[in-house]
Amino acid sequence: MRVASLQSPGSLTLQSRPVPRVQPREVLLAVEATTLCGTDLRIATGQKKAGVTPGVVLGHEIAARVWRIGERLTPGVDVPQVGTQVGLAPEIPCGTCAPCSAGRSNVCAHMRLFGTGVDGGLADFILVPEHALACVTPTKREINPSLLALAEPLSCCLRARGRLPIDPGSRVLVIGTGPIGLIHCALAVAAGATVMACGRPARLSPARAMGATRTTASEGEALVRDVSEWTGEAGADVVIVAVGDPALLNVAARCAGIGAHICLFAGFPLSSLARIDPNLVHYRELTISGSANATLSDYAAAVAMLSDGTLNLSPLLTHEFALHDIAAALDAVRTRAGLKVAVRPGLAPTAEEDASRTVPAPTLA
């Protein structure tokens, strides 16, 4: 089988490896699609090293199909039958640490992740050990594999959504119109909220397609004025920060209304600090919260929403590449050529393009 393996930081290699033999209490999945995100790009270029195992197969937004099931599974462990289309949640929680015991397996103290510490989806096949079988989630009906792969980012957004007071009539400001911000727009609109999206000019049309009724490319003071005008000076009820810029915290607070909630959804650079006017928090009685990763139940809910058509994220899928074109796929992420980029291992390479060869690593702009 072919795999895209990170041999060392910044050195992604397309290799040929034997298809894993399925041992007792293991399941082998045939990968149908893996969508890429900025984290994959940072890992591939060597910018992100923490938690990344040398030689690991990248890819954590995975759609697959059950291919082989090992014998002697533990009683009570339920595995979809061979041939079933499934999503694979990347988070493998330990289940015993304090966060897991408190229902916060999304921030497990001993978390392992497909695509960083465990071989991920940029391969023809992926082996799932028994302790991770709960990550395998069947679809309610067959759907586009690239769409199913979006269950991972959707699950993370659902985690945040469930902790925010977004109701019919709520005014929600989403700062950031990358794929994550666009998913937040879609979820808020589905809840009956009115949405304003702020982001790059090229991403405002997709935000409107996802249901935002107001869009702006304004920043700083200009954004505060836009939100004030949009809300009749009342401010937004919920502000979701989907861009990893610490300076946006104070901007978000200035855009927030009395009793509003601010969600810091994006990851921020290590050691970064944010400054905020404490009187905004005090006098407006603001609630500031964070949201990271997703639980397995969040992931199952995301797969259900996509497979039953409750939420249509198809407009986010703009590019599709074969596995042997992984360099071009990563470059499409780097240049923001579209929205979500999918890699389909089943698209066969020509003989001269086949593994093994080193993939030129894209550089960050």
Percentage of residues in helical conformation: 10-25%
The total count of helices amounts to 11
Question: What's the main sheet like?
Answer: 7 strands, mixed
Order of helices and strands: EEEHEEEHEEEHHEHEHEHEHEHEHEHEE
Instruction: Quote the beta fraction.
Output: 25-35%
Give the overall average pLDDT: 92
Between the first and last Cα atoms, what is the distance in angstroms?
32 Å
Radius of gyration: 21 Å
Count every beta strand, where a strand is a DSSP E run of 2 or more residues. Answer: 18
Low-confidence segments:
349-359, 361-365
Given the helix and strand composition, which structural class is it?
alpha/beta
What does this structure look like?
The model is unreliable at 349-359 and 361-365 (pLDDT under 50). This protein has eleven helices and 18 strands. The chain is an alpha/beta fold. The chain has helices spanning 38-44, 98-101, 145-149, 151-161, 179-190, 204-209, 220-230, 248-255, 278-283, 296-307, 326-334; strands spanning 2-8, 11-16, 26-36, 61-69, 85-88, 91-92, 112-113, 125-129, 136-138, 171-175, 194-198, 214-216, 236-241, 256-264, 287-290, 317-322, 340-344, 357-359. The strands form four sheets. Strands 3, 4, 5, 8, 9, 16 and 17 form a seven-stranded mixed β-sheet that branches. Strands 12-11-10-13-14-15 form a six-stranded parallel β-sheet, with helices on both faces. It is globular and about 60 Å long. Helix 4 (151-161) crosses helix 10 and helix 7 runs parallel beside helix 8 (248-255). 46% of the residues are buried.
